[in-house]
């Protein structure tokens, strides 16, 4: 180890002597090492970098430290990384050496070092992989370029770390990727929904897929207590999430997944479907009604559009839907049967109520079974 060129700086000479002696002790300890020697070495290296030096002296010190790092055990490199992570006067090549080390060593500098720039971070992500990216995702003030590069990995833990990072502003590109990844994963959906910068359409999209516990927490957060108010919020969020799909197939698949998700959560009920009809969300109603009845969507459309209303009444009787709910469905789906009519007269309303009462349960089940095949 050569210290030539450094001895003229008064603060450096005693530190170099200590570094030399401690390094010898550390080396003599072999694989077992020494906790005291390790901490002392990390302290001396840090102190050397704090001394006000010329550019040439800084580079010589960097050579000394990098030389020691190549010989040092991982524990020493990790201890040094912890010490240097927040310092802004460390030679960049020392920080880069630590940042490209194993993740146990690299983590502190990847999270905190102010010296790492966009190109450094993206290069490390590309060369070292998602494990290092997970640490980078904890950094404050990440630029859009780095955030998008992290999002493009589609690594779940990177998505969670970035979503929990309130020191960055997520890009629309990142929100789009993470919202797709968050479906039925509350541990990602929760931090995304709690962000101040979450776009309204993303919040609505996510809200449809989160579990009851998270929904309850969100409703409590916004001061919603009554069931009626909760239902109203659900309606608003669904409206908010309604966007033009990329294609009809994408729209249909999305609505079917949503309907099945509602069924699994025990939320697929007639009042929710009636709310869809009142909002004019006819396609959502049809997919939900199909899942509710366990029939194909074409069969659901056939039952709803049949002119007399008897087929709809049979399906409702077979599934135990109340007469009041059937009447609501009949009235709100009349536009499918008679597109030009605006009002149903009292006589017809009485007739369809009597028809519902007159249907035998066995006949109703027979109609439903035919629709299922």
Radius of gyration (CA) equals: 33 Å
Distance between the termini: 84 Å
Q: What oligomerization state is this entry in?
A: single chain
Structural class: mainly alpha
Mean of residue pLDDT values = 79
Beta-strand share of residues: under 5%
Helix residue percentage: 55-70%
Q: Label the overall shape.
A: rod-shaped
The description of the largest β-sheet is:
none
Show unreliable segments: 28-33, 222-250
Write down the secondary-structure element order.
HHHHHHHHHHHHHHHHHHHHHHHH
Number of strands: 0
Separate helix tally: 24
Characterise this structure.
The chain is an all-alpha fold and 373 residues long. Among the domains are: 1-110, no CATH class; 262-373, no CATH class. Helix content is 70%, strand content 0%. Helix 6 (103-112) packs parallel to helix 8 (130-136), helix 16 (248-264) packs across helix 18 (282-293) and helix 18 (282-293) packs across helix 19 (297-305). The N and C termini lie far apart (84 Å).
TL;DR?
70% of the residues lie in helices and 0% in strands. By secondary structure, the protein is mainly α.
Q: What attributes does this structure have?
A:
373 residues, single chain, rod-shaped
Strand-helix topology:
Elements: H1 12-28, H2 35-50, H3 55-71, H4 74-84, H5 92-99, H6 103-112, H7 118-128, H8 130-136, H9 144-152, H10 156-163, H11 172-181, H12 186-194, H13 200-207, H14 212-221, H15 227-241, H16 248-264, H17 270-279, H18 282-293, H19 297-305, H20 310-318, H21 323-332, H22 334-337, H23 346-358, H24 361-371
Helix pairs in contact: 1-2, 2-4, 4-6, 6-8, 7-8, 7-9, 8-10, 9-11, 10-12, 13-15, 16-18, 17-18, 17-21, 18-19, 19-20, 20-24
